[in-house]
Design a protein that fits this description.
- The protein is mainly α and 117 residues long.
- It has a three-stranded parallel beta sheet with strand order 1-2-3, with helices on one face.
- Helix 2 packs across helix 3.
- It starts with a strand and ends in a 20-residue tail after the last helix.
Amino acid sequence: FGADGIIVSNHGGRQLDGVLSSARALPPIADAVKGQLKILADSGIRSGLDVVRMLALGADSVMIGRAFIYALATAGEAGVANLLNLIEKEMRVAMTLTCARTISDISADLLVKAGDA
């Protein structure tokens, strides 16, 4: 269709509690389109750990819309700057604990799969 990317989101999840989460939907979508389209993940991103998880599940980029809006509404530009600083610090901790030195080192191998624990 000429699209450069796809957004994997579950905005209906708030109203339809039985709908597949974005995190569960992302891996098969990533397998199907990886390399052909950029994959942006959305829905439920609240921390740097959430960002790392979505990248590990196959996203090329992660959207932080609601957290960004809350930070903006609460403290304007300073709130957004603080949010981005917190997310970066949380990502660094998660990456350090999983031995990922760079963003490109984040992969599905870092995740514990259901049944592995």
